[in-house]
Amino acid sequence: MTLQQLKYIVALDEERHFARAAEVCMVTQPGLTIQLKNLEEEIGIKIFDRSKVPLTPTLAGTEIIQRAKKILREADDIRDFVINQKNTLEGELKLGVISTLSPYLIPLFIKQMRELAPKVHFIIKEASTYHLMRDLESGAIDVALMATPTGNANLIEHSVFSEPFVAYLNETHPKASESTYELQPTDRPELLLLQDEFCYNAQLLDICGIKDVKKIKEQFTYDIGSIETLKNLVRAGLGFAIIPQLSTANENHSELFKPFKDPKPVREISLVVTDSFSKKLLLEKMHEGIWNCLPEDLKKDFAFKKIRWNDSPYWIGKISGGK
């Protein structure tokens, strides 16, 4: 039994004529007749008495048609509810954001969403990529703003922008006076990583062509949890860093960060949801809000190379290790 078959018997009841009912349903008369026959055979009851003119429902058929009308009304209500859910700009939304992006984008994003969706209450959680993917699948958050592709077939990714990585150097670095940066062999062992940010670290290792993280010098072991701490270590001459461009937004006067030569290494930033997420209009507004926050140079076309992380041996090794 299908909704389409129920629509056919309701149309037949209203028109009491096969040809007119078929026209209303925009189907051929033989097609409608076959569907009615299939339905009657499935339920084992004759719905219409074909010997009478005009076509007349049987006693049981009258009850079935009334129930069909109720089912079709409820189906329409569900359809209206779904449309409303997709278009609603009210309620609560739990948003997870990777910690290497959150401090630099979220304050601007909040201002934008106050204008674009003032009736939506955002609950924002900052976490690592691993925890964001886990929380999406468990339903603990509704949307994640993170680097992609994830390689997770259970998640749907809506790309928003590409963020370049830049080199962060101290004043004594040999390339400190140049306008662009090209990777130096001496910088590889000095690379600073972030604690527990495995997807981010995997991208840095890829950019530097480092296969074995043990080759990074570890005279001291730093439990670095933020980009800002990492930058302070570089300023103190304690290492070399590769950081996201947005983290330098308030340092336009500084000469410590250098863009890479083209094609620039970038990370793709996306809004990520599960296939059960229904608030499509809100997702579009979030995309618009994020885009409005970006510096103009990130909105322009430029030559880039997307740096993946989900297929990195470093990432796989860390996650399979139970983190």
From TrEMBL:
GO terms for molecular function: DNA binding; DNA-binding transcription factor activity. Residues 1-58 form the HTH lysR-type domain. GO terms for cellular component: protein-DNA complex. Keywords: Activator, DNA-binding, Transcription, Transcription regulation. The keyword ATP-binding does not apply. It comes from the Bacteria. PANTHER family: HYDROGEN PEROXIDE-INDUCIBLE GENES ACTIVATOR, TRANSCRIPTIONAL DUAL REGULATOR HCAR-RELATED. Belongs to the LysR transcriptional regulatory family. This is LysR family transcriptional regulator. It comes from Flavobacterium agri.
